[in-house]
Amino acid sequence: MIWVVGAGGIGAGIAARLVGADKSVTVFDNWAEHVDRIGRHGLTLEHPGGVLHTRPAAIQLSDPAAVAAAPAPDLVLLAVKSDRTRDTLLQLVDRLPPRCPVVSLQNGLNEPVIAEVVGASRTVGAVVRFDGALLGPGRVAQQRSDGDLVIGAVDGATAGVVPGIADRLRAALPVVVSADIWVELWSKLTRNCLLNPVSTLVGLGLGRMAAVPAVRTVCLRAGLEVVAVARATGVATEPAIMYGPDVERLLVGDPEAVRDFHAAFERTYARFPDLKPSMLQDAEKGRSVEVRWLNGAVVEAGARAGIAAPVNLALTERVEELVRGVRTPGVHNLEGLA
């Protein structure tokens, strides 16, 4: 039995694919209407290859009796928002068998928090390299046909269980096993920090925002700050994480490398003009956003390592102002950062 905890765009999409591959899945979420719809009518995934209608079990996280009665899992896929990681795991940990691994499908660096609750020997890191968006109760969509899931051990204690997890999940989606998941996690954090808050502030999908030169400049600066902080913590991000150009040349402001970044960034997202990152989706729907656990986490890690991250700090503060209603979406929100 696989528990998918958190049935947002990513969690619900993976749950549907797993059920479609004949895996036993129970979905947990706090949105009562969503859970009820899945329980009564099933979970539908709309993707480039067609429509997949599935019938996983669905349980509301706020119903202790239902959670207690759920069949115990042998694998947990955690897909809740980062601000809910600790509380959600504390609610469920007594239901998890002693060796049941927990795989984080979340944005940010949640693995240390997971390890504090369930133990490092049961914590598996992951990077989701595809999209997902809820269309409504019981309905989820994916726009991209490419992408995969990268998983890896956060330390040596979990190395032995990762291949088995990968084999189970490959029945439903492409899975890559990483020899160093921290490189993958910090690389994904780099992309998240340069895409999510900027898209949210300007209120545009990826392709449309990538066509604006000032936006590209802010994205470049935010991303390079994350790379610098990662290095200060002992992690080297993927060489091509800044869309191909050499990171060393970008860090010293080489004009040719900067031009190459702008061209590659715009080209990468031109096919997806209205694809919205999760933070923009959340802001538009009035939900909490994860900027404090993405860009804010970079600022905090940088402070501990003696590395300033002023662009990420400004993005964190401005997104939070936007959510509070102090700001309205638009390119004007990037003033002073480009």
UniProtKB/TrEMBL annotation:
The keyword Oxidoreductase applies. Pathway: Cofactor biosynthesis; (R)-pantothenate biosynthesis; (R)-pantoate from 3-methyl-2-oxobutanoate: step 2/2. It catalyses: (R)-pantoate + NADP(+) = 2-dehydropantoate + NADPH + H(+). Residues 180-320 form the Ketopantoate reductase C-terminal domain. It is an enzyme of class 1 (oxidoreductase). PANTHER family: 2-DEHYDROPANTOATE 2-REDUCTASE, 2-DEHYDROPANTOATE 2-REDUCTASE-RELATED. Catalyzes the NADPH-dependent reduction of ketopantoate into pantoic acid. Belongs to the ketopantoate reductase family. This is 2-dehydropantoate 2-reductase. It comes from Phytohabitans kaempferiae. The lineage of its organism: Bacteria, Bacillati, Actinomycetota, Actinomycetes, Micromonosporales.
